[in-house]
UniProtKB/TrEMBL annotation:
Keywords linked to the UniProt accession: Kinase, Membrane, Phosphoprotein, Transferase, Transmembrane, Transmembrane helix
Pfam families: HATPase_c, HisKA
Protein name listed in UniProt: histidine kinase
Domain Histidine kinase: 217-418
Catalytic activities: ATP + protein L-histidine = ADP + protein N-phospho-L-histidine
PANTHER family: SENSOR HISTIDINE KINASE TRCS, SENSOR HISTIDINE KINASE YKOH
Any one GO CC term of the record: plasma membrane
GO MF annotations, alphabetized: phosphorelay sensor kinase activity
Keyword Cytoplasm applies: no
Gene3D superfamilies listed in its UniProt record: 1.10.287.130, Histidine kinase-like ATPase, C-terminal domain
Source organism: Ginsengibacter hankyongi
Transmembrane segments: 12-30, 131-150
SUPFAM superfamilies linked: ATPase domain of HSP90 chaperone/DNA topoisomerase II/histidine kinase (SSF55874), Homodimeric domain of signal transducing histidine kinase (SSF47384)
Amino acid sequence: MKLLAKYNRVNVVATIIVLLLSAVIYYFFIEKTLVYQLDKNLVVEEKEIKDYIIENNALPEPSYSKDEQEVYTSVTDKNVKRSFSSVELYNKDHDENIDYRQLEFPVTVNGKFYKADVRKSQEETEDVVQLILKITLTIVLLLLAILFIINRFVLSKLWKPFNSTLEQIKQFNVSGKDNIHFEPSNINEFTELNAAVNVMTKKAIGDYNEIKSFTENASHEIQTPLAIIRSKLELLSQSENLKEEQMNAIQSISETTSRLSKLNQSLILLTKIDNRQFKETEDVNLSVLLHRHLNNYEELLNAKGIVTTKNIAEPVFVTMNETLAETLIVNLLTNAIKHNVEKGSITITLNEHALSISNTGKALNENPAIYFERFKKESASNDSMGLGLSIVKKICDTYHFTISYTHQNMMHTVTVNF
């Protein structure tokens, strides 16, 4: 979930809760206030009744209107408590029950005791409360709409620098030539974030360039000593009177030197791909390349008893550098042959969308995806350098191809989607 969506959700829920609680509190406050006002009016009515009795020595005329009632009841003693209450009474004239606010108090006329009930209708009070409630709910909905608009547009604009920074980080490539350039922001936190990311990316680029430079220099510097070693080994192998142990030692050194030379060439190739030195592109016919290299490997395949199944569409063109296309094909075929089993099989499928090479092989104990990393191989005893698939992955990344490695029922499948 995006931060803005999360904030909007929390903000809206919190706002609804606060506004609803406020509306409930406001409702009861208004209701109590209006009832209090009715009670004050009833007290005024009480005073007027008592003044009338003093002046006229008689009770006022009873009143039974819908809005106001004055009722007098004779009692035997004066122990009538003065009290306020809310009552619901049936009104015959209007044939309905009406809520009243009532004040009950004792009065004495000519030595006789009476209970006076003064009532005022609460209908208007209820109407006012309902009106206030409707207005409050309308205001709540209006506020929610305003908050939604603010969150949708104002906050989106506020977070624009952050989203821009995030997009720049996603597109950042340590091997790229351009540094990250952030949009200026008047928000201190975003400015600090951009500055921190800028420092981090510059350091990453610097460290990468140092490692790349070291790899380039080391790889090129190693070439000359390796050539000298191979030359000296050839001279030694031609010497007379060499013992068998000496010949075996020379052979072992020669094989190790060859492996080191291949490793060095692979590292140089990876460095060149990283440096984007293979800029020339053309429409390469992968169908032709596959047939050519399968013919080159025919003797090796026959020697290992490997059966090949070809499902190669004709022709399939892919826009890329021809040298890298050959490297891609060679590494995939070499990987399928080298890690195969005696009398195994290889299935090659090529169409305009993908190249898939499957081979029989031993079961894996690890996630196949790790074999796209450098120097990752099936076992330490394997004579592979663990760079073949990493070179393939680097080529695929260069041309935005996707590559996957799956393993099922002793079949290993590498698929490149163009």
